[in-house]
Amino acid sequence: MEYKTPVLEEIERYISSNPLPFHMPGHKMGKGFKKGYFDRIAAMDLTEIPRLDNLHYPDGVIKEAQDLAARAFGAEHTFFLVNGSTCGIHAIIKSICKPGEKLLVGRDCHKSVINGMMLWGVEPYYINPDFDVGFGIPTVISPQKVREAFEKNHDCKGILLTRPNYYGICSDLESIASIASSYGKILAVDEAHGAHLKFNNALPKCAMELGADVCIQSAHKTLPAFTQGSYLHVKSGKIDVERLKSILGMLQTTSPSYVVMSSLDYSRALMENEGEDLLESLIKNIDWFINSLKAINEFSVLSVNSMGNFLTDRTRLVINVNRIGLTGFEVERILRFDYNIQVEMSDPGNIVCIATVSDAREDFERLFLALADIRTRVVKEEKTADINLYKYNCSMGVPEQVVSLGDAFNSRSKKVQLQYAAGMIAKGTITPYPPGIPVVCPGERISKDIVDSLSALLKQGGNVNGIGKHDEIEVIDYL
C-alpha cells in the first residue's frame, strides 16, 4: 500500500534537487557534521534511560554538557533548550517580570517577545531602532534612546534587546549594559543569530562578554545544530536561577529530544576546539565573494564600511539588489527556481543569506555566478524599493496602544479586509515573516500608512503573518 505523506514527500523532493542552502539550520543539510557523528540519527532518538540523565533534573551527562557549554560561552550557567529560542525568550520574560510589571523592549524584537509579554501580562515600553535608507532596514538601538527610556520608566524591571538583528547589525551593547547597570536594571539579550560570535575575534563580541545578565542563542541558526536547539546563558546574580529552572521545567517538553541535545553538545565542542579556524576560513570565503561582487556595480553588500560606525556580523550576507531593477523578493524567487539556490529571506530591497562554518568556497562561487548571470539577464531601470513599512516602524513612532496585550488577546474579534482596516485595533500580531519583526502588535491602532505599506509589501510578493489568504486581518470587535 502506498501511503500519502505530503510533508515527507516534499522534503525528499527538496533534498533530491541538490539545492544550495543559504538558510538555517546552520549544519546546511548535514554538511557541518563530521563524518560518523549523526549516521545513526534514528537510533539516537532516545529517552531518559539510565546514564542518559534528565534535562529537567540533570546530574549526569546533560549537566556535564551544560557546564562545558557555560565555560565555552563565558556564562555562569547554561541551559539546553529543545523547544527553540522562543521557549527561552518566554522563560526569561517570566523570570524577570511579574504580571503588570513593565519591560523595555526593542521594537525590532521577534514576535516571540510580544507573545511572551502577552502570556505573562507584562507591559511593554518599546524603543525604536534607527533606520538606514540605503538598504531600507532597521539598524541599532542607540544607547541614548535606552537612557531616555530608563528615565521615563523608572519602574521597569529591565530591558530586552535583539542583537545582532536579522541583518547582522549589532547595537553598542557594552554601553547599553553600562546604562542598565547604572539604573540597577536587568539586561536580557535575544542573541538568536549570534551563537557563533564568541569564537573569532574578527566578529563582534557576544552578549556574555559585554555585560548582559542573560541571553538566548539559537545554535541551530548559525552553528551545526539541529532545529530547535538553543542555549540559554546566565551571567549575573540579578537572575534568580532557581526560578528560571522552574519556569523552563514548565515550558519545555517532558520528552526532550536527545537528537537535539546531542547536536548542542557537538556544536559547542566543535566551535570550542576548531571554531576560530573554521570561522577564519568562512570569513576569507565571504571576503572573496564580496570583492568579486564589487566588480558588478549593480549590487551592494552590507558591511562595516556601508554601515559607518555600526558593528556588523561579517558572516551575514545582506545583498541589496535595487540597482538591477528587481525587488529582493524577485531575486529570491529567481535564485530558487532558476539556480536552485535558496536564501534565508528577502525584503523589498535585499536578499539575506545565512553563511556558517558548514559552507564551502564553491558555495560562494555558485552564488556569485548566479547573481552575475541574473544581472546580465535583467534589463530594467533602477528603482527604489518601497521601504515605507520599515521606515514607518523605525522612524515615525510606535502605533498607538489602545488596549493592553492581554486585553487584546481576550477581546472579541472580527475579520475585515486589509484595505478597510485603517483606524481599527489589531487583535493579533501582523508580522512580515521572515524576519518575524512585528509591524503591528495586539491592541495597537492600525494606521492608513501601515495599511498602505502592508498592501505594497504583499503586492511585491512579501509574506505577512496575520494577513489571510484573501487579505483579511483580525481586529477587535467592540460591538
From TrEMBL:
Pfam families: OKR_DC_1 (PF01276), OKR_DC_1_C (PF03711). Its EC number is 4.1.1.19. InterPro entries: Orn/Lys/Arg_deCO2ase_major_dom, Orn_Lys_Arg_decarboxylase-I, Prn/Lys/Arg_de-COase_C, Prn/Lys/Arg_de-COase_C_sf, PyrdxlP-dep_Trfase, PyrdxlP-dep_Trfase_major. Residues 407-459 form the Orn/Lys/Arg decarboxylase C-terminal domain. It comes from the Bacteria. GO terms for molecular function: arginine decarboxylase activity. Its cofactor is pyridoxal 5'-phosphate. It is an enzyme of class 4 (lyase). Residues 5-299 form the Orn/Lys/Arg decarboxylases family 1 pyridoxal-P attachment site domain. Keywords: Decarboxylase, Lyase, Pyridoxal phosphate. Transmembrane segments: none annotated. Belongs to the Orn/Lys/Arg decarboxylase class-I family. This is Arginine decarboxylase. It comes from Pseudobacteroides cellulosolvens ATCC 35603 = DSM 2933.
